[in-house]
Every structure is written in structure tokens, then in C-alpha cells.
């Protein structure tokens, strides 16, 4: 039930695999050296750094295999996002949804996102907010009893909170993990005031219309309502000077964010929401991603 225990088991398992592979490679070298009588020219020794597995998950330090907890937790998070979209399932191995038009199962252990849109925001404004959904994923996979401890272990490994990681780190890691050919696409305003993920293999011609109508414009409305609430605080006779100052600061941040998001909606998003564009998976990620480069997270060198 504890991720820390699972992590330790993971490390023990892969350390044994690594050491076995290392021993096998040295034994093969000995056999070839003996067969070709190359004892005076070659040595069977293989340096640990030359073993070709666990290159991201571990480093070699002082002759020892040292695992990178942050990378392993990021891989776990990546898998969790895949389960949210239905790419993977807790109920079966391999891929679950990997083709456009494929039916989305409704009887899975962990509920698949119904509209293929998961908001990635600095605050929890939607029921399917990615940070909140991931906490529910951890609860589904490791149980409720140690949920708080498990979230603490993940965040300690990451060196930041889950929400900050999703907002500032997750997508860059995803781009790197898929070698600039991401399968989850990030709708993003220029300054990242609004972001949401979609799964390429579940894309439909009306997907960006749903992003705009159900999330972007709704987010604008929610921000404006929050600003009104803060305004009441700044004019309240009972609010402390500190509360008023904090409220005023938040209002200024909201104004900046609203300005950026509204311009993004007017200048970019509205057009893509009104003109449904079809894609063909056979064209590959690059061709399809670049069709929407004006509203998707920019990937250096992908779209010329």
C-alpha cells in the first residue's frame, strides 16, 4: 500500500537484473576470448556505465548503481496520465485505446476521462483537474489508507508539489520522453495561463471546440467570479490590511491572466474551434501536431 515500499522493491528487482546482465556480458566476453585465444589482447571486464539498461532510471556513482527517484516517479506519473486518457488500463497489459474512433470502455477500475480533455492549471477549478485526478489515481492503485504519505513521497522525490510539476515540468518531460513526438497534446496560451491536455489517438474534429466551450471560456468565467470575490475582500471593513493586500495582489495576477487568455481565445482558439480539422494517425505526430501549432505548446524544431 506504500509507494515507498514499491519503489524499494522496484530498485531491488532492477538492480538484480542489471547485475545479472553485467555478469552475462562479462561471461560472453570470456567465452569469445577463449575461443579466439585473445587472452593477451582483450579483457572480459565490462564497465558498469556500458550496460545499456536503466540509462534514465539510474546513474553509476563510485562503482554503484544509484537509482533516480525523481525519474522513476515521473515515469509513474506518465503512466497515470495514460490511464486517465485510456491509453493504458489497470485491468490489462499493453495498450487499451490506440486507434482513432475506438470505443472508450466505461467499466474500468479507474475511470477514463470522458471528453478527452484534462485541464492543467495552477488552481483547482475543474472536477477533472489533472493534479486532483492523479491523486485519485494514486488512491486507486495504492489505496486510501496511506494516500497522504504516498503523495508526500512522490512530491519529495520530484522536489516539488504535484500541481507545480504538472504545470511547469510534466509536458517538457513528455516531449523528451517521446523524442519530440508527443502523443498527449497540450493546448497552451502563449504565457501558459491556460493549458489542457488531449490524447492524440482520441482526437475528433470537434475536440478543440470542446476545449474552448467547456474549459477555456468556463475558466475565464471562473477567474472573473474569483476576482469579484476578492474585490469584496479589498472593500470589506472587517478584512485585515494583510488580507486586503493579498487580495489586491491576486486580483492583479488574475487581470494579467485574463488579458492573456482572452486574447488567445479571440486571436487563435476561436478559429480552431469553429473550423474542425481532421487528422490521420498515419501521417505521424509531426504532421498532425503542426496543423495546430498556433494553439499547442511550442516544441523547438518540430514545426518549421
Summarize this entry quickly.
The protein is mainly alpha-helical.
Description:
The protein has 304 residues and is mainly alpha-helical. It has 9 helices and 5 strands, in the order αββαβααααββααα. The chain has a 3-stranded antiparallel β-sheet with strand order 3-5-4, with helices on one face. Strands 1-2 form a two-stranded antiparallel sheet. A hairpin with a 6-residue loop joins strand 4 (184-188) and strand 5 (195-199). Helix 2 (69-85) crosses helix 4 (147-158). The mean pLDDT is 96.
Helix proportion range: 40-55%
Low-confidence stretches: none
Report Rg: 24 Å
List the helices and strands in order. Answer: HEEHEHHHHEEHHH
Percent strand equals 5-15%
Distance between the termini: 48 Å
Task: Give the number of DSSP strands.
Answer: 5
Q: How many individual helices?
A: 9
Largest sheet, order of strands side by side?
3-5-4
Mean pLDDT: 96
Shape from CA axes?
globular
Helix vs. strand class: mainly alpha
**Major β-sheet annotation:** 3 strands, antiparallel
